């Protein structure tokens, strides 16, 4: 099971490349807070439509964690929910770019693999799902999306 935070959905949604997640992982799970941020509260129609389409196709599954772990760091509601869902469901991996959330996951002993959105893009290039990681990074820069490498 893979749990994703907002940044990979925003990035791949704006690129119209959410199919990369399906090819690489099958299904992706997100908490309601991430759905709210990436679909319900966005004004970016391409992103909203792409993510909604993946939800309707059951590629992205929206699920609310019942666990409410107390974290040391001040985290965004989406990041808290992602970590709670990963703990509760014993996720195999988490796609998350936020440094504080990644540090928190490591400190609480979460055994899930931590992946950056850039890891997903590099994997997509290796599988031939995108032509060039560097070209995609340039495209994102033009969209004012900056990802940790």
Structural class: mainly alpha
Mean pLDDT: 95
Strand order of the largest sheet: 1-4-5
Instruction: State the low-pLDDT regions, or none.
Output: none
CATH architecture: 3-Layer(aba) Sandwich
The biggest beta sheet is recorded as: 3 strands, parallel
The CATH superfamily name is 5'-nuclease
- The number of E-state strands comes to 5
How many H/I helical runs?
Answer: 8
What percent of residues are in strands? 5-15%
Task: Give a verbal description of the structure.
It is a single chain. The chain has 149 residues and is mainly alpha-helical. It is 53% helix and 10% strand. The chain has 8 helices and 5 strands, in the order βααβααβαβαβαα. It has helices at residues 6-14, 19-25, 32-40, 45-56, 77-89, 99-107, 117-126, 133-142; strands spanning 2-4, 28-30, 60-62, 93-95, 113-115. The strands form 2 sheets. It has a 3-stranded parallel β-sheet. It has a two-stranded parallel ribbon with strand order 2-3. α6 links the parallel β4 and β5. It is globular and about 40 Å long.
